[in-house]
Amino acid sequence: MTRYQPVLVALGLAALIVAPLGQGNYIIYTLCSWLLFSIAAMGLNLTLGYAGQVSLAQAAFMGIGAYITALMTLNGIHWSLAAIVSIGASFLVGLALGYPALRVQHHFLAFVTLAFNTLLFLVLRNEEEITGGSFGLVGMPRPSFFGIATDGNLPFYYFSLVCFLLAACVLWWILRSPWGRAFKALRENPIRAESLGLKIRRQTLLAFAIGSAFGGLAGAMQAPLVQFIEPGSFALIHSLKLLLMVVVGGSGLFFGPVLGAAVVILLPELLRFTEGYYLIIYAALVIVLMVYSPNGLIGLGIKLYEKFKPRQEERRDLKQGVQL
Fold first, then answer.
1. 296, 253 Cβ separation under 8 angstroms
2. Is 268 exposed, middle or buried (0-12, 13-18, 19+ CB in 10 A)?
3. Which residue in 36, 69, 228, 232 could disulfide with 220, CB within 3.0 to 4.6 Å?
4. 205 in helix, strand or coil?
């Protein structure tokens, strides 16, 4: 960690605390959506950015978490228990889905996860007795903790912020554990990592499972936030949106998914003053970014910092003295 990062983190945390103050319900709702999508994108970044495995099923894991949480809370079970079950179920399903990753890699693996996302969408739509089918589920209650209710949008925002910070701390710990170093080695050079004794298959499974658990947590938050879920909310297009968040922000960088989620969720709202042209402007900005900075916004920032930072010049007299 550089000497500037703690200051930037503190400023960012302060900005998150004061961001919703004085804002309307729609702005606060949008900020909550940004936080929960950031959690899902952090999980995908663990799978894609650190372990180097392409997944197009992150929205499906959000759907698993959302439907489990919705069904449990509608039957009187507290959100915290429902969230734990959702995270555990997503972890186990991710573990099972990771088995194809033992034999296929990269774009072939993307097809496997794409098929899983489509399969889950069809199951959610057709199992009407459990999931409500195309009509979905409605009326999920927002949780309360120690007598403090989160029914209002502002209390729910701070509840979402706490969940986001806990998820970020867990991810930070994982990346600095032996697991995190193994994921990075798997991404950089799998052959060399295997020659050093790293079990490639086990690490691939673990990356899928942990990343899926983050998606389950995001889905568990989405159910009480929206209070209405239906299969279309977890279709393939949303997995592609999560993939865009990771790539735009900076794949393999800790704060990349958070910044990418801000671009994908918040930027279109900021561009609505252009009326019918905001989607065109948004798409053009993303294309330009990907052309000139494939490492995303954070990668672009690092590149500019390296270019303009003052360089230390060596003393020529010392250099000449060494030659003598």
1. yes
2. middle
3. 69
4. helix
CA dist., res. 217 & res. 231, Å (int)? 17
Q: What is the pTM of this model?
A: 0.89
Angle between helices 278-292 and 236-249 in degrees, nearest 10: 50
Report phi then psi at 127, rounded to 5. Answer: -85, 70
Q: Tens of pLDDT along the chain (324 residues)?
A: 466 678 888 888 999 999 898 888 889 999 999 999 999 999 999 888 887 788 889 999 999 999 999 999 999 999 999 999 999 999 999 988 877 766 666 667 788 889 999 999 999 999 888 888 888 899 899 998 888 888 888 999 999 999 999 999 999 999 888 877 877 777 777 677 777 777 777 787 888 899 999 999 999 999 999 999 999 989 989 998 999 899 888 888 888 899 989 888 888 777 777 766 777 887 788 788 777 777 788 877 777 777 776 665 555 555 555 454
Compute the distance between CA of residue 297 and CA of residue 299 in angstroms, rounded to an integer: 5
